[in-house]
C-alpha cells in the first residue's frame, strides 16, 4: 500500500545551491521532481508533444505495428497478457536525425488515407482538432501537412530533452566532483517511450506496469498532468504516490547510473497503479548510456572505496536483464566486482 509523501524537488535554475540536495535525492531516493526547466523544455512544447503522442496512439493498430524494434522492446508494444492495460510506442535514438526520420516514416499513414485518422495540425496558428480524413479525400493535403507538423514537434522535443539530459548530467558530475565535459554525455543514446494506459472500472486497484527499475542512466518522465498512478519505492521498501504536477518533470535514476556512480546513486524501483477508469498518457525519455563500456568513474574508486561493479555496455546489460527476467535492479548483482561478492 502506498503512503503519502513527497519526493525531492530540484530547481534547475538554482545551481550550485541545489548541488547537495541533488546528491541527496540521487543517493536516498533515486528520483526527484524537476522545476524551472522551461528555458530548455517549455510548457508549450510539452503540451504539443502530448498532443502528438495522443494522435499517434489514435492511429490504426496495423500502422502502429510498423514502429519496429531497433533493440528488443524499443518499438511498438501492444497490450499483452502480462501487461493488458499498457500500450507503447518507441523512438530508439532521439539524438540521431536518421532514427527520428525512421520513426516518423514508420507511422506515416499516407497509403492508408481511408482509415479514420485524427491529426493535430496548425493552420495559421490555430489548432484544428480531430480531422477525420476517412470520408473525404480533400483532406489529403491537410493530412500530409499534419504529418510534417508531427515530425517537427518530435524533432523539437527530442532536441530539448537531449539538451536537458546534458544539463542534468553536468550537474550530477559536478556534484560528484567530476568534470562533466570529460564524460561525453552528448554522444550517449537517448530513447523516447510513449505510454498509453487503458484503465477501466474493472482495472482500478490493479497494476498498469509492474515494479521495475529503468535499465538506462537517467529517465526524464513527462507524466500525465491529470491522472495519477506513478508510485516510487523508498530504501525501506515503502511505496509513495507521485501525484500529478503540471509543468514539471520526474527524473528517475537508472541502473547504469548506479554502476557509473560506483553504487552511490540509487536506482529507484517504481510502478504504475490504476487509480481511476480513464486513459493515462506519459512520455518517458531515457539517456541510455555510452556506445562503449560504462563502469564506475575512476575518480570514485580508491583505497577507501573499492570498485563495486565491473564495466559493461548498455546493450549487454539489457540483454542480461531480459535473459534473467530481472527487471527491478537484481541484475546489477551479477555485475558486482569480485571483491564485492562476499
Automatic annotation (TrEMBL):
Which Pfam families does the UniProt entry name for this protein?
A: 2OG-FeII_Oxy, DIOX_N
The record's GO molecular-function terms, alphabetically, read: metal ion binding; oxidoreductase activity, acting on paired donors, with incorporation or reduction of molecular oxygen
- Xref: InterPro entries: DIOX_N, IPNS-like_FE2OG_OXY, IPNS-like_sf, Iron_ascorbate_oxido_reductase, Oxoglu/Fe-dep_dioxygenase_dom
| Span of domain Fe2OG dioxygenase | 186-290
What keywords are assigned to this protein? Iron, Metal-binding, Oxidoreductase
List the PANTHER family: 2-OXOGLUTARATE (2OG) AND FE(II)-DEPENDENT OXYGENASE SUPERFAMILY PROTEIN-RELATED
Q: Which family does it belong to?
A: Belongs to the iron/ascorbate-dependent oxidoreductase family.
Instruction: Spell out the protein name for this chain.
Output: Fe2OG dioxygenase domain-containing protein
Q: What is the lineage of its organism?
A: Eukaryota, Viridiplantae, Streptophyta, Embryophyta, Tracheophyta
Amino acid at each position: 500500500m502506498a503512503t503519502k509523501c513527497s519526493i525531492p524537488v530540484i530547481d534547475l535554475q538554482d545551481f550550485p545551491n541545489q548541488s547537495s540536495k541533488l546528491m541527496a535525492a540521487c543517493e536516498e531516493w533515486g528520483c526527484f521532481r524537476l522545476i524551472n526547466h522551461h528555458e530548455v523544455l517549455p510548457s508549450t512544447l510539452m503540451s504539443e508533444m502530448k498532443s502528438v503522442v495522443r494522435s499517434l496512439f489514435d492511429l490504426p493498430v496495423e500502422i502502429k505495428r510498423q514502429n519496429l524494434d531497433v533493440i528488443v522492446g524499443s518499438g511498438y508494444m501492444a497490450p499483452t497478457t502480462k501487461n493488458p492495460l499498457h500500450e507503447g510506442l518507441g523512438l530508439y535514438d532521439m539524438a540521431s536525425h536518421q532514427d527520428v526520420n525512421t520513426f516518423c516514416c514508420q507511422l506515416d499513414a499516407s497509403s492508408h488515407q481511408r482509415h479514420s485518422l485524427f491529426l493535430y495540425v496548425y493552420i495559421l496558428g490555430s489548432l484544428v482538432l480531430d480531422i477525420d480524413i476517412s470520408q473525404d479525400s480533400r483532406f489529403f493535403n491537410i493530412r500530409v501537412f499534419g504529418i510534417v507538423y508531427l515530425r517537427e514537434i518530435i524533432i523539437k522535443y527530442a532536441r530539448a530533452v537531449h539538451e536537458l539530459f546534458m544539463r542534468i548530467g553536468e550537474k550530477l558530475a559536478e556534484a560528484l566532483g567530476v568534470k562533466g565535459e570529460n564524460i561525453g554525455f552528448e554522444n550517449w543514446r537517448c530513447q523516447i517511450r510513449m505510454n498509453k494506459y487503458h484503465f477501466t472500472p474493472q482495472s482500478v486497484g490493479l497494476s498498469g506496469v509492474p515494479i521495475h527499475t529503468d535499465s538506462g542512466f537517467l529517465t526524464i518522465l513527462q507524466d500525465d498532468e491529470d491522472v495519477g498512478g506513478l508510485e516510487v519505492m523508498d530504501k525501506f521498501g515503502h511505496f509513495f504516490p507521485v501525484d500529478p504536477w503540471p509543468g514539471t518533470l520526474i527524473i528517475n535514476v537508472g541502473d547504469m547510473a548506479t554502476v557509473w556512480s560506483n553504487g552511490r546513486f540509487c536506482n529507484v524501483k517504481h510502478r504504475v497503479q490504476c487509480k481511476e477508469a480513464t486513459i493515462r498518457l506519459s512520455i518517458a525519455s531515457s539517456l541510455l548510456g555510452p556506445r562503449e563500456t560504462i563502469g564506475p568513474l575512476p575518480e570514485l574508486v580508491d583505497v577507501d572505496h573499492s570498485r563495486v561493479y565491473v564495466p559493461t555496455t548498455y546493450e549487454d546489460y539489457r540483454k542480461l536483464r531480459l535473459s534473467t527476467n530481472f527487471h527491478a535492479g537484481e541484475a546489477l548483482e551479477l555485475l558486482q566486482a569480485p571483491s564485492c561478492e562476499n
